[in-house]
Amino acid sequence: MARDKDNIALSDEHNSRGIELADRGWLDEAIKEFKKAIELDPHSAHAHDNLATVYAEKKQFREALNEYLLALRLEPESATAHYNLACFLSTHAAEMAVEEYKEAIELDSEYPDAHLNLGLTYADQGRVEEAMRELQTAIELDPQDGFPRHELAALQMDEGDYRSAINQLKEVVRLEADNFEAQLDLGICYAQKGFYAEAERAYEKARTLNPEDLLLNYNMAALYALWGRRKDAVSFLQKALAADRAKVMGWLSTDPMFDSLKGDPEFEALF
User: Fold this and answer.
1) d(CA 70, CA 84)
2) Contact at 8 Å (CB) between 236 and 230?
3) Which of 105, 168, 184, 214 is deepest in the core (most CB within 10 A)?
4) Total domains present in the chain
5) Radius of gyration of the chain from Cα atoms?
6) CA dist., res. 93 & res. 240, Å (int)
7) 91 near 60, Cβ under 8 Å?
8) Same structural domain, 205 and 222
9) Residues 140, 147, 193, CA angle at the centre, nearest 5°?
10) Residue 61 structural domain
11) How does pLDDT run along the chain (271 residues), one tens digit per residue?
12) What is the CATH number of the domain that holds 183?
């Protein structure tokens, strides 16, 4: 169906007026103008796009996404339409995810995966306390799932709370004895707290699962350096260097855990 030229002209006037109102921060009034523009010319992709932009600014993310997709359907070959959708997603996708997870939880407060993923999204945004709270709720709702426990432990490690992380990781490895990453993280936590024998046991369990892992061999070398077991430290450091010399050299340049080995002939010979 051909588009009516008069309607198009009127639509453009409302669209221009909407842009002026949006620029002044009068968003509700701008929405009304953009809707009038669309009513007069439903095929106006730029009116849908402008309406989407205002919806996004008002944090009405579902409405914004719908309008961006409408604009793209109307002009699928428009680079601008693709660009605007991409900008919206890159800027607001995480915020939109938070709102949708919260909506899911409001509808079903005992939805463990919603709490888990809301926690992970919060963690990605640096909202640590909120992330921990949601992960703890996920654990309470599904105590047999090791994944939220491991994610909570990782946040606790980042915050330097190794004791709390140990408690979570011990439960993870009880639930999932073959979880290499959990055994490795448990060893790291024990080492940070000075429980060297416990760290060694956790690392040895990890070695049964993946003996060639770079991080494992490096952390075992660090443990033995802290423990004063120089030969063992050098031996595991050799394995790590053989796996990725450049990366390990970078770590060593700022790692104080190996300070006790400086001046040791075998350690210095590695470089």
Assistant:
1) 12
2) no
3) 168
4) 3
5) 28
6) 39
7) no
8) no
9) 90
10) 1-91
11) 445 777 888 898 999 999 999 999 999 999 999 999 999 999 999 999 999 999 999 999 999 999 999 999 999 999 999 999 999 999 999 999 999 999 999 999 999 999 999 999 999 999 999 999 999 999 999 999 999 999 999 999 999 999 999 999 999 999 999 999 999 999 999 999 999 999 999 999 999 999 999 999 999 999 999 999 999 999 999 999 999 999 999 999 899 999 888 888 888 888 8
12) 1.25.40.10
Q: Is residue 97 part of a domain?
A: no
Query: Based on the domain organization, do 116 and 200 belong to the same domain?
Result: yes
198 and 225 assigned to the same domain: no
Are 188 and 157 in contact by the 8 Å Cβ rule? The answer is: yes
Residue 229 burial (10 A CB sphere; 0-12, 13-18, 19+): middle
Strands of 11-82 (E only): list them.
none
Pair of tokens at residue 104: 């899911």
* Amino acid symbol at 38: I
Strand, helix or coil for residue 161: coil
Residue 266, burial from CB neighbour count under 10 angstroms (0-12, 13-18, 19+) = middle
* Residue 71 near residue 88 (C-beta atoms within 8 A): no
Hey, what amino acid is at 73? R
For residues 36 and 66, membership in a common domain is answered with yes
The angle subtended at Cα 216 by Cα 215 and Cα 217, nearest 5°, is: 95
CA distance 145 to 132: 16
| Residue 232 CB burial class (10 angstroms; 0-12, 13-18, ≥19) | middle
Q: What is the pTM of this model?
A: 0.82
